[in-house]
Structures are given as C-alpha cells and as structure tokens.
Design a protein that fits this description.
The termini are far apart. The protein has two domains: about 20-85 and about 130-245, P-loop containing nucleotide triphosphate hydrolases (Rossmann fold, 3-Layer(aba) Sandwich), CATH 3.40.50; about 255-480, no CATH class. A five-stranded parallel sheet has the order 4-7-10-1-11. It has a three-stranded antiparallel sheet with strand order 14-16-15. The chain has helices spanning about 5-10, 20-35, 50-60, 75-80, 105-115, 140-145, 150-155, 190-195, 195-200, 225-230, 235-240, 255-265, 275-290, 305-325, 335-340, 340-345, 350-355, 360-380, 380-385, 395-405, 415-425, 430-435, 440-460, 475-480; strands spanning about 65, 85-90, 120-125, 130-135, 145-150, 165-170, 175-180, 205, 215, 215-225, 245, 270-275, 330, 410, 460-465, 470-475. The chain contains 24 helices and 16 strands. Helix 12 (about 255-265) crosses helix 13 and helix 13 (about 275-290) packs across helix 14.
Length: about 475
C-alpha cells in the first residue's frame, strides 16, 4: 500500500495520531497475545528483569535500568524499538519529527499554515526513532536540549527573540521516539536539573525562551550502582520523576551463562577447533569464581564479556597450535584456558589484597577454582572418598600411580595425539574420567582427564608445577619431602 505523501492524503487515509507510549503499549499487548519472544537473545531474565520491564511499558513509564557492567542494559534499551510502529508519518522539513496532524515546532506549525493539505509528509522507520547519549561530565544542557545559534541568527538576520534561532539538541530531535541516556549518574547535577521538566511536564525550555515545546517520547536510562559513590549520583528530584527502576543482574545459572557466551563469542575460525562442553564449563566458571573472589572488587562487577573474551582466546590458542603444527584442526585443552587469562585479568578490578598478589596470581587462582567447580559438579569429593571404609577410593589407582614416583607433563606445544597419550599413561585416569563425566568422545574424555588431575591438585592430593605453557603433576608428599614448591 502506498503511503500518503501530503497532509491532505494522510487525513483522507484515516490515520490517527497516538503518543509513543500508547504506541509501545498497544504493540506490546499484541506481542504478548501472540506469545511472541519479546527480547530475542536476552538470556536469564525471563522471570526477573523482563516481567518488570513489561509492566513498566504497559504502565507507560519512563524507565531506569540499574545494574553492574555487562548486564545487557544497553542492549535491552535498544531493543525497545521492536514495540514501535514500523513507520510513522512526519512533517517533511520540520526539525522535530513533527506529527503532521499536530506539529510541535514553530516551523512545523508555520509550514502547515502556509501549505495546508499540500504540506509534504515523509515516513520514518522505527530504527530511526531511537536516540542515545552516553553521559559524560562534559555533556552540556545545549548538547541535550539546545541553545541559541548566533551564526544562524546573523546569517538569516533574525532577532535573538525569534524561536528560529534555536539550535535543537539531541533530545528534542528524538521527538516521537525513544531516547536513552547511558550511565546517568555521570551527568553533572546541574545538567540533570535540565531534565526535570522533560519528565514531569513533558516539555523543554531553552535559554529562557517563553515558548515551551511539548515533546512526545519514552525516556529510558541506565546506571551502574558503582557510579553512586565513585563518580556521581542521580539527584533526588530526577530519580523521583523516573517512574520505574528495574534491577538487572548476572546470570544466576550456569546454563544461562553458557547460552550467553555461546551466542556472543566468535569461535568459528578457518582452522577447525573442537571445544568440549566441559571446557566451556570451566571457562564460564571463571566469571562465577571471580564474582565470589575476595581479591576482586565486587562493587565493580565481573562483566559477561569476561567468559566471552576468554572463550575466544581459548579458541585462538588452539588455532595457533594447529597453524604452528601445520594441521587442519586442533582440540582445545585445559592449558588453553591458562593462555586465555589475559582476557580475564584485564576485565576485573582488584582490591588491595588482589593488587598485592598480582593479576597473574589472581588469574591462576580463578582458573584453579573454576576447574575445581566443574570437578565438583561431576566427581565425588576426594577427601570424603578417601575416608570411605566400605570400598576403595575411586581415586586410589590414579593417586597410587603418582605415589610410585611417576609424573605427567602436559605442554601447550604437544600435538593432540601426544597430549592424549600422556593422559592415558596415568593408570586408572581414563576409567575414572569415563565414570565421572560420562564422556562421549575422545576430546571430551581428554578434557575430563585434565579436570580430574587439576581437581585432585585443588584438593591438595597432587602437586602441580606451572609455567606459561606447561603443567607438571606429581605426587604431593614426594614434592613436599623434596622441598618443592607448587
């Protein structure tokens, strides 16, 4: 169907104007009645954040998303355009996306008065109706709302009292759409004051002009709780005018976290890299461990980007090994996670104790606890098993092999065949791994065997000497007697 190109044709078509919030409410109701997915790709929020967000939109509220870094706040805000009409008519030549049936700007009203039904109408797509500004301390009221343009006044010989000399800011230019301000507390308090009228009276005033411009928009904000103490805060009158504050969070369940990382990580490379699901659990557990670590500043948060970047580095290390060995494919292994720690340590803020330890030591600690977390999900507790009097410990064969003076050296430079051969040489390790992890293929089995070794080390039942590119597992007692250090 051809869209009306003039005001007269628009009126003849029966078009009826409605506010942005009514438009979103109506379309959201249609989504809900069709049981259609509201925010594709957003994981772990189905029973927490999304219901609160839907309630706020149905109530026609302006919204603040409050949460730590890497909790999909900006992505959620940008996806709100899904609930706008695909196209709306705007008065062509007017500066504020003016509704042809009810222009907001002085120029728009003059255009309709002069041309009547012949006033030109354009159609604006939903994606063009979203505006966004990252709050920084240097943002001014002129940037957001507008200011007098002396150059325009001089060039067109206009008096400063003429509304035509106004240069509109980014917010009024987003009229009849959605406008988002990210990291709201970073705005200086005097700039936040400029938003008060916008939220309550739904209009703006520029430089004391007697003209008030009624704006129609949904205002949404994001903020990080850390900002309230480190860089600024949201002034009380502004916070009072934001109708709904919705708290975001990190994934509560491993399955949700894995789904997010699988969705976001770039792992399809020219060289084929096989990644065991068990290894993905270890990578994801890095973030869970960091969020519980006493060495990591929990007020800063541990972004979902940590496991995403770590997994990409794991794949890259395996890809590099394949290229160096001139083979078409490689299997990712536990040592690749150590090579990926650079993607972790750069994304976490350490407390004083963590800084004293150093990023690498903290990163290796997170790696060990992540491997232990996966070990605990699949294997019996070695300490409890050791005290079982009714049957031998499931770890007795493996520990016995090390007790007789054997050791195993796992190197980053080993081929997949060499790596597997070293693991299988440990007596009882493959049987134990199959029993605990129910590994379905050789790649899974090898990772499972590595996790068993690292898990036993984390329970102080095996010693481990670590370098950047190799692990050596040995008997704990023998190492202690020799005065060796882990």
């Amino acid at each position: 169907m051809r869209q009306p190109a003039t005001l007269g044709a628009l009126r003849a078509s029966g078009y009826r104007s409605r506010s942005v919030k009514d438009e979103i409410r109506s379309n959201l109701r249609d989504f809900l009645s069709r049981d259609e997915e509201l925010f594709p790709g957003i994981k772990g929020y189905d029973r927490t954040v999304i219901p609160h967000l839907v309630n706020a939109l149905l109530a026609r509220h302006n919204i603040l998303l409050l949460g730590l870094r890497g909790q999909a706040k900006t992505r959620l805000l940008r996806m709100l355009t899904r609930f706008l009409d695909e196209y709306i008519p705007v008065l062509e030549g007017a500066p504020l996306n003016d509704d042809p049936l009810s222009p907001a700007s002085d120029l728009g009203r003059r255009l309709v008065a002069e041309r009547g039904d012949d006033a030109p109408v354009a159609w604006r797509h939903r994606e063009a109706r979203y505006g966004e500004k990252l709050a920084t301390p240097d943002v001014s009221v002129a940037d957001l709302l507008g200011d007098i343009d002396p150059v325009k006044a001089s060039r067109e010989r206009l008096d400063f009292s003429d509304p035509e000399v106004i240069h509109y800011g980014i917010i009024p230019r987003s009229n009849r759409g959605i406008f988002a301000i990210n990291e709201l507390p970073d705005l200086q308090p005097r700039i936040q004051v400029g938003l008060l009228n916008l939220l309550e009276e739904k209009d703006i005033q520029i430089r004391g002009f007697p003209v008030r411009i009624p704006l129609d928009m949904l205002l949404v904000f994001s903020a990080n709780p850390e900002d309230y103490t480190h860089r600024g805060n949201i002034i009380t009158p502004l916070k009072d005018r934001i109708d709904s504050q919705i708290l975001t969070h990190y994934p509560a369940h491993l399955e949700d976290a894995l789904a997010i990382t699988d969705q976001e990580a770039w792992i399809e490379r020219e060289s084929s890299v096989e990644i065991s699901p068990l290894l993905r659990e270890v990578v994801e557990s890095l973030a869970f461990e960091a969020r519980e670590s006493e060495h990591v500043d929990q007020t800063s948060g541990v972004s979902a980007r940590v496991p995403i970047a770590a997994l990409e580095n794991v794949v890259s290390n395996a890809e590099r090994r394949a290229l160096v060995q001139r083979v078409p494919s490689a299997r990712a292994r536990l040592l690749d996670v150590v090579a990926a720690l650079s993607a972790v340590t750069g994304k976490i803020e350490l407390v004083y104790e963590g800084e004293q330890e150093g990023p690498l030591v903290v990163g290796m600690g997170l790696f060990g606890r992540a491997a232990r977390r996966v070990f605990d999900r699949h294997c019996p507790n070695p300490k409890a098993a050791r005290g079982d009097t009714t049957e031998d410990s499931p770890y007795s064969d493996v520990l016995g092999w090390f007790n007789t003076g054997h050791q195993v050296d796992l190197s980053d430079s080993d081929t997949d065949a060499e790596h597997g051969k070293k693991l299988v040489s440990v007596s009882g390790l493959d049987v134990l791994a199959r029993r605990c992890f129910k590994s379905g293929n050789e790649a899974d089995l090898h990772v499972a065997m590595e996790i068993v070794l690292e898990g036993l080390h984390q329970y102080n039942m095996l010693a481990r000497e670590a370098t950047d590119v190799a692990f050596r597992y040995t008997d704990m007692l023998a190492t202690m007697l020799k005065g060796g250090r882990d």
